[in-house]
Every structure is written in C-alpha cells, then in structure tokens.
Design a protein that fits this description.
388 residues, Nucleotidyltransferase, domain 5, DNA polymerase, domain 1, 3 domains, 6-stranded mixed beta sheet, 3-stranded antiparallel beta sheet
Length: 388
Amino acid sequence: MTFLLVDSGEKLNDLLDVLVSEPRIALDTEFHRERTYFPRLALVQVAWSGGVAIIDPLAVDIAPITKVFGDGSLIVLHAAQQDLDVLTHAVEMIPRRIFDTQIAAGFLGFSTPSLASLVNAELRVALPKGDRLTDWLRRPLTAGQLSYAASDVEHLLELHDRFRHELEVRGRLSWAEEACEDLRTRPAGPADPADAWLRQKDLRGLKPRTRGILASLAEWRERRAMASDIPPRLVLPDLALHGVAQRDPSSIAELAQARGVDERHTRGPIGSEILEAVARGRERRADLPTFEGEDLDRSLRPAITLVSAWISEVARTHDVDTALLATRHDIVALLRRDVGARLSGGWRRDLVGAQIEDLLAGRSGLSFDGRGGLRLTSVSPEGFSAET
C-alpha cells in the first residue's frame, strides 16, 4: 500500500490544503496511556478520495488538523470513542460530524465487530496482522508498523459507502446518524476525581467511616496523578489505597504500617498529603449509589426482566445490536419516567418503545411463539387475543 508519511509542518499544511475540500475523511489514531494519566497521541492516520497519509505528532504540531473538523467534512471512524477522547486531549476539539462504522454495523446485524472482521466480511479483504502490543511511540517506526497503521483507514470510506447504502435500503440511516451523534456529544475526557472511589472493588463490605476515607484517598490520588500525568497506580496502588483506608493512620509511623505502603509513600510531602486526605475522609459521607432498578417501585422491578426479554427478541428479529437498541439503564429510565429517556423518543420508540408502553399498561403480554422466540399478544378483559 502506498501512503504519505507526514513528518514536517510543511507536509502537514500541504495535506490539509487537500483535505479541507474533501467531503469525507477517514481517520484513526494510535496512542498509549500505560505510563501516563492522559493518552499520548502517537499517530494520526487519514484517508480520502486521493490517498492515505500517516501524520507523526511527535515530529509535527498536530493542532492544525482541526481545520477539517468543521461542518464541511464527514469524519469516518471505527469504534470512535477512544479516538474522540484522544483528540479532546491532543487538540481540544473533535469533529462536528462523524460516522462510526462499528455503530452502523450494529444496525445491520453485527454485534460490536472489529474493523478486521468487518473488512473481511463486507469487502473480502484480510487486513495485515500487527502486533497488538507494539510501541507506537518508538521512533523510527518500522515499515510493518506503518503499513498496519495505514490499513486502519484504507477501507473505511468503502465501508461507509456500503453501509450507507444498506442503511438507506432498510430505512435505518437516520437511526445510525442519531447514534453517531449521541456518541459524538457524549462527555469526553477524565471523569470527576471525586467519583474515583466508585471504581474500587468490594465497596459494600466496607464500614461507612472506611468508605469515606477510601473516597477521600481515591480523589487525592486521582488529582495527583492528573497533575503529574502518571497512572494513578503509580501514585498509590489499589492495595495501599485500601490498606490505608482500613488502618486510618494519624501519623507517618502508623501510615508505614498500612498494607501496600512502602518507603516512597511515607517520605517527603506525599506522606503528609496522604494523612491530610485521611483526615478529610473521616468527615466525608460516601454513600453508595443505588444499582439500576433499586429505586424503582417494587411492583415494577419484574418489568425489567420482562422488557429486557422483549428488547432482545426485537433486536434479534430486526438485526440490530441489542446494546444499541437499549441498555439496562435505558429500561430503568423508561420505567422511572425519566425526562429524556431514550426509549421514549426517536427511532427507539418507533421500534420498541411504544410496545413496551403497551406491556407496562397491561394492553399487551408476551408468550412463546412455538419456534423458540417470543411474540407480543394483545390483552382484552377476557384474556389474551391474537398475536399483534
């Protein structure tokens, strides 16, 4: 495969002069975050009607790429969430219009497919196999690395053509476009440090005081990791996080006795910072969030299982990825009558939301169809009537 390696500002400007007039641009990124808190961009790959280019952000300022992120160009990606997160950090901007081929595939009978599987199934092309753990930040990059990176965008525009046609034929293009916009507008970047403790395990087994200390320590660790741009585990490992919270130390000597704590955690300012976080945690109320459905009226909780079963059946019969149609959170939001519940509007309501309303109102019921599936039946005062 022939591609352009962009490793200077002049080459990038020349490339962007071409791309700004392109209606569609395929895009992918390579990045690492194993040794940093924020993702470190290693490559940006683009493809357009005239070729493929690999931009090296270690050799050139990547910021001007935002010139093609306006309304004039549709940016085609695959499994775009991480790419959007990386771009948010790297250039503080994401494209105004995107098309995610993984999302589109979900409306055509695929279930979160990889790019390689899609290209093989749809285009009968086998993408080159690369090393999943390759170091994209190493320079110089090998010919194999560059070829593999280029292949990630080489076929995206062809996939877009095919999927757009198939979605139009099935009357689902607007569904896919709405789902892509939902993804594009989803909050990107790091989560609130105050919520970092919620990612820890076995929280329900902790006493309220211990949980408050753990929450305070986890927030401190997250903020320190962000400020130093290192993974939180390098600030304080999870074992030490729990060990300190359990021991509730008031001095450096007591801190040193906590499980998982070593000398680097007790000397210098870090030891004092840990003890300050512990002190704040003693006064902190850290209530566990309710699980989805726990705050529903008890009489409605069985409806989650019933509605989930029907959604799975609709997804199967309509060749839509179940995760795109509705998550458990979506079901609970509908049952709670939340404002903006996704099942109460748009294509989801057209496909399944109205049927769920009939189920909940007692106007319909579910039965087996005798062929291993479910069917929706209308309900009258005398009992079940014919299939609807």
